[in-house]
Amino acid sequence: MTPAAEPTAFGRRDFLKLSAGSAALLGAGAFTAGLAGCAKQEAPAAGYAFLRAGDAALFAAIAPLVLADSLPQQGRAEHLQQLLKAIDGTGARLQAPTQKMLYQLFDLLNTGLTRRLAAGVSKPWAEAEPAQIEAFLNRWRNSSIGLFNGGYRALNKLVVGNWIALPEGLKAVGYPGPWAPMYSALNS
Amino acid sequence: MAINDIYTDGIASGWDVRDASSFTAPTTLEADIVIVGTGAGGGTSAEILANAGFKVLLIEEGPLKTSASFKDMNEARAYAELYQEASGRTTSDGAITVLQGRAVGGTTTVNWTSSFRTPPETLRHWAEAHGVKGWSVDEAKPWFDERSERLGIAPWGVPPNANNAVLQKGCEKLGWEWHVIPRNVRGCWNSGYCGFGCPVNAKQSMLVASIPAALAKGATLVHHLSVRKLQFSGDRVTGLEAVALDANCIHPSGVSVRVRAKHVVLAGGAINNPALLLRSGAPDPHGRVGKRTCIHPVVFTYAQMPERIDGWYGAPQSVASDHFQWSGQFDFAPGFKMEVPPVYPALIAALFGRSGPELSQNIAQLPQFNVMLALTRDGFHEDSPGGEVRIDEAGNPLLDYEVSDYLFRGFKNALLRMAEAQFAGGASQVMAAHLDASWSPNWTEAKRQIENLAYKKFKLALGTAHIMGGCAMGEDARQSVVNSEGSHHQLQNLSIIDGSLFPTSIGANPQLSIYALAARNATRLAQRLKPAAV
């Protein structure tokens, strides 16, 4: 990790100290929730089976920065909505231990203090500056702390895996569609 | 053109297939033999036991999805409906992605059709190091022959697709061993959609081959039914407690089902079998259940080819290399088998691990991607003891898996050799699947970079589609859960028949290893029980 990749507001030593603390929190979600003092037994948002309101806001904020031009500008709001529904569908099919691990990650990122310390994002996700989100993604990818790399992989996989499986995402990777000789024979 | 749907036709002809999500009241099911799980082990056992005259009940937690629902050839639908946790299953720390099927036919419904016999080196190691009797190279051969015949398994007779051809060409140039992969197909269209469910019933999966054969002989199939516990009395299993799942196959519907059978066969795979035994408090005097759960940890490299190769089309796996599998310094690092995965768009894009323009610009080039993978041999060295399946407080399975320095050295070797093969196979750029890696324009640069990467979980992309062991077979009850024919050491009327029996990983894609061992074990079980006597 290079110093330049770290939050500008902190020195390297401070960041490492905070990172280590945040890493411990990431591994202890119950403690995170306790620290935040809010009830994280929160139900999924209306119309969702897995994502809570804050989780949906998190993905809505990071997805455009993760996907860049793979997410078309035109109709972006509608695409984002489709993507959130797809992520929700995948999350709903995860078994309880995997869901718990993800909720711990989301709690860390949705609690003001740990969001600022671990992700370096000063405002709630819906108001976060794109540059801060981009820096957060890079920092977690490039970190030498495995838990941050793991958090990055989990978020990235949920966004990319679900988006590229949708029709507009498939276009973004140049997929010509289901193999035509078979598809047309079976669907004509 | 319409492809006959085997199950629509079969059910019309009187097959007993029931969807537990439609059950509205508690039910008791009875059979001579109940088989929990319908994958390679359960499907094969069902066919043989039903043919032998037993009243067989097959239970599957996942849904029944058939060729009619595969004709959209859609990746999103496949992951949601046919895979464990919508393909989001991982080891307990999230570091290793686990691809496993969850549907009638188990993983055989979604695998990529590679069908290798258990390597002789593996069978010899089991006899020498794990006390396995009666499954030597010579003793196993007739069972491999018989299952190969039954399931149409033969080396793929069509030229490899361009993605596989990179591996073939690379090996030829470098003078490395390579071979054509045997596949379990009949009348294959060479479309490449095996991973989403075969829409033309060409893949001779359990869904298409063995389960229909069992149903035609009077077996009963109940899907959307999750077995939660075994009940015991003395040294016998007296019943099974199960819960029906809702139509989406996610939550219990609230309807409970009891199952009574004279003999019980577990075939839920290497994660679910140990979890069921642990949830049930099954006798385990030597603490062996869930131990030595081996995987084939897989690492990947990407290559940019100078032209479009459309690696999503064509038989997904047709070429493999064992050049580094059985000769090497195995005290230092494990051996590995080299293959390619299909370039399924979401699968490969999600693996890529990049964000922003770096992601979008690279995945826009997916039509030119070749991807290579190496299956690392697990369980053959003291620093590669496999992982452990345990359950959480609610009884859900977790797979703990530590990656030793020994394995990381194997991963580095594999990344190097794959990159070398990709350049030899015509790649213009190569990159390891690692968060810190970047494209290298030649082998010298790739070598330098791969040698200097940080070999750590999460930095390195790790996956597996093969979970083996956790209910190991062997003659020594202190080291194993069942004997060499799959009979439980402590419970007389319980057999385990699937990949959870393996004392180590296989060193090759395991489906045919499971088919052959299951065929032998189910045949012996039938001889032992005799239909009239159960």
Outline the secondary-structure elements:
The complex is a heterodimer of chains A (188) and B (534).
Chain A (H helix, E strand, L loop, with lengths): L11 H15 L2 H8 L16 H15 L8 H17 L3 H15 L1 H8 L10 H13 L3 H19 L2 H6 L7 H8 L1
Helix pairs in contact in A: 2-5, 3-7, 3-8, 4-8, 7-8
Chain B lengths: L5 H7 L3 E4 L7 E10 L3 H12 L4 E4 L7 H4 L4 H8 L13 E3 L21 H11 L6 H14 L2 E3 L6 H13 L4 E2 L1 E3 L25 H7 L3 E4 L1 E9 L2 E10 L6 E15 L2 H12 L12 E3 L2 E7 L14 E2 L15 E4 L5 H8 L3 H8 L5 E8 L11 E4 L5 E4 L4 H20 L4 E4 L10 H9 L10 E3 L2 E3 L24 E3 L14 H19 L5
Parallel strand pairs in B: 1-8, 2-3, 2-11, 3-8, 4-20, 11-22
Antiparallel strand pairs in B: 5-7, 6-14, 9-10, 10-11, 12-21, 13-16, 13-19, 15-16, 17-18
Helix pairs in contact in B: 2-8, 2-14, 6-14, 7-12, 12-13
Structure description:
Chain A: This is Twin-arginine translocation signal domain-containing protein. Chain A: InterPro entries: TAT_signal. The complex is a heterodimer of chains A (188) and B (534). Chain A is mainly α. Chain A is globular. Chain A has one domain. Chain A has 10 helices and no strands. The longest helix of chain A has 19 residues. Chain B folds into 2 domains: 273 residues, FAD/NAD(P)-binding domain; 156 residues, 2-Layer Sandwich (Cholesterol Oxidase, domain 2). Chain B is built from 14 helices and 22 strands. In chain B, strands 1, 2, 3, 8, 9, 10, 11 and 22 form an 8-stranded mixed beta sheet that branches. In chain B, strands 15-16-13-19 form a 4-stranded antiparallel beta sheet. The longest helix of chain B is centred in the last third of the chain and has 20 residues. Chains A and B meet through helix 3, helix 4, helix 5, helix 7 and helix 8 of A and helix 4, helix 10 and helix 11 of B.
